[in-house]
Amino acid sequence: MSVTTKDELAKRVAERTGLDGGQAKLAVQATIDEITAQLEAGNEVKFTGFGKFSAVARPAREGRNPQTGESMKIAAKTVPKFSAGAELKKAVNG
Question: What's the predicted TM-score (pTM) here?
Answer without folding.
Answer: 0.82
